[in-house]
Specification:
Two copies of one chain form a homodimer. The first copy, chain A, is α/β, with parallel strands linked by helices and 475 residues long. Chain A is 35% helix and 25% strand. The first copy, chain A, contains 14 helices and 19 strands. In chain A, the strands form five sheets. Chain A has a six-stranded mixed β-sheet, with helices on both faces. In chain A, helix 12 runs parallel beside helix 13. The longest helix of chain A is centred in the middle third of the chain and has 20 residues, at 205-224. The two termini of chain A are 48 Å apart. The relative contact order of chain A is 0.08. Strand 2 (37-43) of chain A pairs antiparallel with strand 2 of chain B.
């Protein structure tokens, strides 16, 4: 098993000004392809600490991903300290300099002089192809002559030749490796320190994400000698707790006897993500292994699966409505607009989303949907929700209306404070409804009700029963 | 300067299943009292890694806070590995055992046997007073006799005496230190390993938070020999960027010439937090030092300060309405219910919040507020927003109505996609409005508009101009 470590650097992360989501992102991405992080270190923009961290990781790990410290300011020390740790010189990487100048030129700006620092790399850093697949150029002294190796792709060659002042002082041996950053000026790079291979990455999340997926993970997989084809299959569900789903899915991994299917979970209330990681010799092999397991998971979780892979609950609901030229009105109380806020701003929602009304008092709900005559006292029932959903639909001429009404327990917030949720979905010809009680404090009830509302609508649109008992529900 | 390190332990954190907010929380809390973290390490539920991490930190640091690994399962290794690192035995801490049994008894449950593990502590762990300030009990062999030292507070004494089976096998020398956890069963503890003092804390955030603030930070401050009185003053603003506020506040720290006031920022778009940390010999001293700086910050940031310390924008708006027996209706378009969702669920909001209407199409907005005759075509203007706000107020009989209407640029999401925001606030006798344009993509526009809507309402309620140019605005 390859020993992988992560080093995060930067005062903003070390002081807690920024929550370190880059680390969890990297670690999850590696897990998804069957690689595991052993150790993580965070240090600030401090030469001595960073040097120490690099050397320590170099003694323990086979591969290290370093995140941050690649920016243009004097605080950004990664290249410099990496060179020190590897006991080599810093040299200008001309190709990257040209890339940066181009980056600024495209934005009609002149590159500030301090950005030049971002193109200074440790001499032994290995140059890597950029993501469009062409060889990156490097310069090298052989005997007395200075040789310039340039890429075969014309526009990259041109860029190097046109670099202002022809600053071609770079000396990069054939082992230097640049990790391309197609969307920013910080250049990533890879380098050996001690016995470990280090990967240096920028702190800007979207730049990190792209670099990690397109360039670092494939290198790690190659280095680990693992079978290269890996597939991650994800199922999203609402209503079943992690231990319940774990029990329901007992044994699915064994449907593929060679141990190449791994089951995992990620709970983020109210949803649960169920993950299958499948390794194989090639894509065909992974597909073949995944098929029976995938089928079994769908069978066992059944109606509780709300979407798969990158699809979201709100996306499924919108698509379900759009496919039948439908439209939607929403009525909310304690959820306070959070149901509408999940849907109504999405691209394409303007064609489907009709209107939402939010009010805390039932009388106000009635007034808003044109039910002025109704009595706003007494216990909240499914019938109340049904009447409200019907009225909202009639009023707005939407094909579907969802009403989620909540009777919240009195008193201060506490762990056993609950809410009774009555929800209804009305169409022109029918109405479906359910009543549920959730305990767990104000936020738990509110978040649970948002998800329940959307998920019942998803069920309705998929012709599934709107009511099935969920684990969060109390009798 | 005291060298402080943090060690986070747990597979859920190391694999990225959980984002490590505990670390940023601890680090920020320490920063707020003038202490700095030098180094952070994350390891999994792995004996060898944890032992290595403890020993390495013990060589580098003066104090170490260890988070996680104190639970009842076999995965939880902190006590055991800490004992190994300190080369001492694990012994049962009887007082904590009693506390746990009490904890379960109060919930009418019997303590499961594996929870007993949570009361096993390294022999040299020092027992610390619990947060209500009484001495914690400990047992000790002196000569041939077993002595039981018990706390003076009756209910704590009783609890120890009543512990079932009178399991008093603990042997804790006078240096053992328990860090009280008033709300959970995981017991924190402190211990020296190498030259550093280690503080072991549970991974459950709310348990960690309470332990950190009430017990660990005071000990760290005492150990650091720093002047003990420290005050943190926070200002929240909307509309000015970090570098702008930094420039506006240049020199405020120097109003107190001895360097005991430190200025810092935390940007979380769309809001910015400006922090003043003041050190002094005592509370009076810090108050005296803070006063002129605080006054100057208020003067320079002026109308842009939306709240101070723990107060939130939505809380200020709600309080402003409640204090004048006011009520509020909201009309939203692209913000999709997110403005209402900030307010309407808060405790007390049911008295103030009247109704919100969300629609993406202007015609639907008109229909919802009873402006059926109005034309829903043509450019969005301040007058449109004014008419909508007036109509919404009339319709719902609220004292105040806020309308935030947005005309979003066409096309796919991109970094320079913008939105034109027309917002209006209507009362019975007047209407105030503004028009602004924000660029930065769909989410940037949406989040900015939510904050602008709430902040303009705050300004209106505080008799400040609803329009003042903000940094996020484009001409």
């Amino acid at each position: 098993m390859m020993r992988i470590e992560i080093i995060c650097t930067g005062d903003e992360v070390l002081t807690g000004k920024i929550v370190n989501t880059n680390f969890s992102y990297i670690s999850q991405k590696l897990e998804d392809v069957g690689l595991s992080v052993r150790w993580e270190t965070t240090v600030g923009d401090d030469r001595e600490s960073l040097l120490r961290a690099l050397r320590l990781a170099g003694e323990r790990a086979d591969a290290v991903i370093v995140n941050g410290g690649l920016g243009p300011t004097v605080d950004d020390l990664s290249q410099e300290v990496a060179a020190q740790a590897a006991r080599v010189e810093l040299v200008l990487n001309d190709e990257w300099l040209a890339r940066m100048e181009e980056f600024f030129r495209r934005r009609s700006r002149v590159m500030p002089p301090n950005n030049r620092k971002q193109a200074m790399l440790p001499a032994t850093a290995e140059v890597i192809d950029n993501p469009i697949g062409t060889a990156c150029g490097f310069a090298l002294d052989i005997g007395q002559a200075r040789f310039f190796f340039t890429p075969g792709v014309p526009r990259e060659l041109h860029r190097m030749l046109e670099a202002p002042n022809n600053r071609k002082q770079a000396m990069l041996p054939a082992t230097a490796e640049v990790i391309d950053n197609p969307i920013g000026t910080a250049c990533g790079f890879a380098l050996d320190i001690g016995q470990a291979r280090f990967f240096f990455t920028p702190g800007v999340p979207r730049e990190l994400h792209r670099m990690l997926e397109e360039q670092i993970i494939p290198r790690l997989l190659a280095k680990s000698g693992m079978q290269t084809a890996i597939v991650l299959k994800r199922f999203h569900s609402y209503g079943l707790g992690e231990s319940h789903v774990d029990a329901l899915l007992r044994g699915v991994e064994e449907l593929v006897p060679d141990g190449s299917v791994k089951l995992g979970f990620r709970a983020h209330y109210p949803q649960l993500e169920t993950k299958l990681t499948v390794r194989g010799t090639d894509t065909e092999d992974t597909r073949r292994k995944l098929a029976p397991v995938e089928r079994e998971v769908r069978k066992r979780l059944g109606n509780f699966i709300l979407s798969e892979d990158d699809a979201t609950l709100e996306g499924v609901v919108l698509a379900g409505l759009a496919s039948r030229q439908g439209s939607l009105s929403i009525v909310e109380t304690f959820t306070s607009g959070a149901i509408a806020a999940r849907l109504a701003h999405l691209p394409g929602a303007d064609k489907v989303f009709c209107r939402a009304v939010v009010a805390r008092a039932l009388g106000e709900v009635y007034a808003a949907v044109g039910l002025e005559g109704a009595s706003a006292t007494g216990e909240l029932t499914r019938e109340t929700a049904e009447a409200v959903a019907r009225a909202a639909r009639r009023q707005t001429h939407a094909t579907h209306a969802l009403a989620v009404l909540i009777d919240l327990d009195d008193g201060a917030d506490r762990i056993d404070l609950g809410g009774t949720i009555c929800l209804a979905i009305a169409t022109e010809h029918e109405v479906a409804s359910r009543r549920s009680r959730i305990l767990g404090g104000r936020e738990w009830v509110r978040l649970g009700a948002v998800e329940m509302g959307l998920d019942c609508l998803r069920r309705y649109l998929q012709n599934l029963p709107v009511y099935e008992r969920i684990d969060f529900e109390k009798a």
